[in-house]
Amino acid sequence: MKKRVLARFEGAAIAIGCRWDSRPTEHPYAPVAHDPTLARLWNVNLAVRGRVLQTDVVWSGGSTDMGNVSQVVPAIHPHVAFRGRDEVPHNPAFAEAARSEAADEAVLDAATALAWTVLDAALSPEIRTELRRRCTARLAGSTRVTLQS
User: Fold this and answer.
1) Per-residue pLDDT for 1 more than 90?
2) Domains, the chain, ordered by start
């Protein structure tokens, strides 16, 4: 897709008689750094919702700027499956699965577990203090710094 888009830019430049070039302007996306405390709370809360944790799943492909965010802010980026479904995201079969009762259940389980995780962190003086300390220790502007390639 990228190759086709860049070819169109070149064609447009030729058509109007100008030059153009492209170059990366910043590091694409950093890997997601899951906060271990928040991840532990999430795992417990998701299990309370009756979900079986699969820690052996390897995610490949895709990208998200959540990795960049997680480099400077305590964060998690968990996934919740539609029970009994195995459609691959970003295709018509997944869109159909996303309208199922299993998808509704996954959204409710994930939202509840996430809300409980926030409450657990906020209501624990130790966790709240540590998260605040880490946020306060961030350098000014660190959320706007591009990672180096």
Assistant:
1) no
2) 28-144 (3.40.630.10)
